[in-house]
């Protein structure tokens, strides 16, 4: 993959950070060792939670690291979604109608081609003819998707602009021929999506604009510092809440490798550590074949000291 | 002898991908193997098993094989992410999003989703005088439908909304946060019906209040409760001689009586908490959850199967005793779990049924008298079995599910109110 110098736009809305373009997700993962968490539904696998789709959700620590390293910029997403001008909207509608028409034409030629190749025996021809007749008799054929359409004319108000703006394909075709309707995932494909007035290059600028607040206190600064410290040593990091820590520390991409450590952030080098915590961390880490990493953040020196706990295993 | 040792030719057990692997527990994120996804048929998707992982990359950034496998896994993942949301024009529903009221007005509804989503609201159209009822979606319902590719949503001017715009503009309205939406879509993807626990508007259908009243004792004043316990305490037995044997009440001299007498400290969840009310708690029941098997009627939803609280794990402490008590106070008391039948019904016993019916014996006077006199004692009908106290204790009297979301990572916890005072062991 070629090294891309273009900063990745992180879309910020409601203090949460999203990545919507798959190319950006690829750059983040392959070049910057940052994984985030996928949070969306995959359109073709929408009834499961094992594989999820865009958007990619970034941890606040990841956002701070990316912006501080100048790999990414922050975009105030609600502001970047401008209202389209009339010509823009018209152009979009034309393109959509064109797409639908083209698809219908393609389908028609496919059907006729199929008919040509399939007309082998008299019997098949006759059966096909019967089918066609039956189809013509009932104009409402079931759609190819597994959803059964429930036309409810009562809920369809004619006065709203949506109904007006729906594809104005020839009405005779519109009844019988289905064509795919595409819902865009990322807004960057829309012509009226404009980030120029809504982009912030630093965390401070975004904080001043009120769209981003992390890190706002010592605990959050400590988390950012520890995250950065481990990342700079070449590790991949993931969320560690399911292992009783703050991060999971991976030696390589989590797609292929197991994590070696569960890291806990300690806000100060002189913070009290209770013996129970050591026992609990040691216990959980040993049970999951990980070492527990205590990461003490020194807010004055801005550095981290690491201490790992592992059961010695003398029988 | 071990059977496996005696059969050296037995085929090796197939390696199960989802067995807890050696190096890690099964819960790690990104544990799924995306390479197995790409070969799937889109029309009939099958969720593949978890892939296997390695311990660490070889020194110097990984061996050639490791790099190759990683690249394959990554490109499979990115290919799956690039899938477009494309639905047939005959299955697509349409809606218009109104930010001012935080609702999406469904102008054309198709598909089975609307049997459990959306509610009808009377609204006055801009140009018209009369109010008309129309179908509206809450923000989470609209985003979920858009994400599935089942709803084409536009802004009021006709501009199409991308999934990104839906996330940016619909979240943050009507109490909806990203964390709550993630829990919503997670449960919806599993097939649950999810509704709001607190109606966001008077037109939102709610569960009719159940007849089972909550414990009246909770609402008494502290003083009256105190005196109640006090009188209960003194009326029961002589304080100073708790084990005094009264010769006329020998029937009480059982272990049960003695243990009962010793329990003079009020216990159970009806006892008042001596903890002050704190300020606004993040622990509020937000969703009602219905299993896919529960018959659900949108206009009058049944009592929920589960109540779900959603919290942001980054900023929320563990629930305090008071917060849990408040949560349980809103919930209905559940019946103890049904005990499992030890001897399952053997079904129709074919051997006996196949016998030809015995010829009716002639009813003589003697046979009638003998049947009356030598009547076998009727076997007493089996008493309803006492439910297993441990199952009941484990299930709890009231259950609340707390979903803690840490930057996209959802963990579900089930809190049950154990009724230990109801199941004394003696």
Question: Would you mind describing this structure in some detail?
Answer:
Chain A: Residues 223-306 form the tRNA intron endonuclease catalytic domain. Chain A: GO terms for molecular function: nucleic acid binding; tRNA-intron lyase activity. The complex is a heterodimer of chains A (315) and B (426). By secondary structure, chain A is an alpha+beta fold. Chain A folds into 3 domains: 1-82 and 194-213, tRNA intron endonuclease, N-terminal domain (MutS, DNA mismatch repair protein, domain I); 84-136 and 176-188; 215-315, Trna Endonuclease, Chain: A, domain 1. Chain A has helices at 22-32, 60-68, 77-80, 86-118, 122-137, 161-165, 171-176, 203-209, 218-232, 275-287, and strands at 8-13, 16-19, 37-40, 53-58, 72-76, 180-183, 199-200, 236-239, 247-250, 261-266, 291-298, 303-309. In chain B, the strands form 2 sheets. Chain B has a 5-stranded mixed sheet with strand order 4-5-3-2-6, covered by helices on one side. In chain B, a hairpin with a 6-residue loop joins strand 4 and strand 5. In chain B, helix 4 (139-148) runs antiparallel to helix 5 (163-170). At the A-B interface, helix 1, strand 3, strand 4, helix 4 and helix 6 of A face helix 3, strand 1, strand 2, strand 3 and strand 5 of B.
Quickly describe the structure.
By secondary structure, chain A is of the alpha+beta class.
> What is the overall number of helices of chain A?
10
Major interchain interface with per-chain residue totals: A-B, 98 and 99 residues
Shape call of chain B: extended
Total strand count of chain A, please?
12
Low-confidence stretches of chain A: 140-174
Low-confidence stretches of chain B: 1-27, 212-220, 346-361
How far apart are the first and last residues' alpha carbons of chain B, in Å?
44 Å
**Rg of chain B to the nearest angstrom?**
32 Å
């Amino acid at each position: 993959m070629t090294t891309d110098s273009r900063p990745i736009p992180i879309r910020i809305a409601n203090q949460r950070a999203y990545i919507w373009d798959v190319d950006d997700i690829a750059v983040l993962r392959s070049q910057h060792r940052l994984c985030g968490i996928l949070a969306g539904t995959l359109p073709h696998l929408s009834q499961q939670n094992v594989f999820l789709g865009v958007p990619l959700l970034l941890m606040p620590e990841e956002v701070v690291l990316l912006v501080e390293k100048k790999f990414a910029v922050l975009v105030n997403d609600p502001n970047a979604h401008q209202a389209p001008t009339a010509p823009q909207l018209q152009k979009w509608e034309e393109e959509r109608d064109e797409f639908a028409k083209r698809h219908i034409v393609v389908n028609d030629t496919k059907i006729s081609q199929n008919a040509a190749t399939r007309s082998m025996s008299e019997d098949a021809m006759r059966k096909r003819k019967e089918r066609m007749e039956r189809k013509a008799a009932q104009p409402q054929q079931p759609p190819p998707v597994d959803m059964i359409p429930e036309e409810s004319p009562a809920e369809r108000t004619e006065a709203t602009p949506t109904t007006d703006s729906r594809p104005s394909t020839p009405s005779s075709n519109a009844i019988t021929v289905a064509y795919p309707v595409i819902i865009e995932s990322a807004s960057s494909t829309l012509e009226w999506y404009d980030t120029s007035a809504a982009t912030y290059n630093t965390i401070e600028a975004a904080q001043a604009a009120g769209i981003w607040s992390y890190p706002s206190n010592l605990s959050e600064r400590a988390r950012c510092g520890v995250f950065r410290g481990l990342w700079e040593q070449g590790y991949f990091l993931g969320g560690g809440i399911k292992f009783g820590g703050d991060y999971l520390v991976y030696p390589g991409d989590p797609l292929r490798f197991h994590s070696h450590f569960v890291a806990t952030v300690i806000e100060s080098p002189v913070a009290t550590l209770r013996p129970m915590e050591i026992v609990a961390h040691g216990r959980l880490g040993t049970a999951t074949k990980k070492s527990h990493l205590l990461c003490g953040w020194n807010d004055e020196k801005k550095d981290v000291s690491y201490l790992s706990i592992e059961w010695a295993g003398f029988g | 002898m071990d059977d496996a040792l005696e059969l050296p030719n037995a085929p090796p057990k197939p390696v199960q991908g989802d067995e807890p692997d050696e190096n890690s527990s099964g819960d790690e994120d990104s544990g799924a193997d995306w390479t197995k996804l790409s070969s799937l048929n889109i029309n009939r998707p099958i969720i593949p098993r978890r892939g296997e992982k390695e311990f660490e990359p070889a020194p110097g950034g990984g061996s050639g094989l490791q790099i190759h496998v990683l690249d394959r896994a990554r490109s499979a993942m990115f290919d799956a992410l690039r899938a477009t949301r494309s639905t047939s024009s005959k299955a697509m529903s349409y809606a218009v999003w109104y930010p001012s009221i935080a609702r999406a007005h469904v102008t054309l509804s198709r598909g089975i989703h609307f049997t459990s989503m959306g509610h009808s609201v009377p609204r006055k159209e801009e140009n018209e005088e009369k109010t008309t009822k129309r179908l509206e979606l809450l923000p989470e319902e609209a985003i979920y439908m858009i994400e599935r590719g089942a709803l084409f949503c536009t802004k009021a001017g006709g501009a199409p909304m991308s999934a990104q715009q839906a996330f940016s503009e619909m979240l943050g309205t009507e109490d909806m946060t990203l964390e709550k939406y993630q829990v919503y879509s997670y449960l919806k993807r599993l097939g649950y019906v999810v509704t709001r626990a607190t109606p966001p508007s008077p037109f939102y259908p709610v569960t009719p209040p159940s007849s089972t009243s909550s414990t009246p004792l909770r609402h008494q004043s502290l003083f009256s409760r105190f005196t109640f316990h006090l009188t209960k305490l003194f009326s029961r037995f002589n304080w100073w001689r708790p084990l005094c044997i009264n010769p006329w009440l020998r029937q009480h001299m059982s272990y049960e009586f003695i243990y009962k007498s010793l329990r003079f400290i009020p216990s159970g969840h009806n006892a008042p908490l001596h903890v002050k009310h704190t300020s606004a708690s993040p622990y509020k029941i937000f969703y009602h959850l219905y299993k896919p098997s529960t018959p659900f009627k949108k206009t009058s939803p049944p009592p929920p199967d589960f109540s779900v609280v959603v919290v942001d794990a980054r900023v929320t402490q563990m629930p305090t005793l008071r917060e849990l008590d408040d949560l349980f106070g809103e919930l209905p008391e559940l019946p103890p779990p049904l005990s499992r039948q030890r001897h399952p019904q053997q079904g129709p016993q074919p051997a006996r049924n196949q016998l030809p019916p015995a010829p009716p014996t002639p009813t003589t006077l003697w046979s009638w008298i003998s049947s009356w006199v030598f009547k076998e004692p009727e076997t007493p009908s089996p008493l309803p079995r006492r439910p297993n106290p441990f199952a009941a204790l484990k299930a709890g009297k009231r259950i609340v599910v707390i979903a803690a979301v840490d930057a996209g990572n959802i963990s579900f916890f089930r809190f049950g109110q154990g009724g230990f005072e109801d199941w004394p062991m003696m």
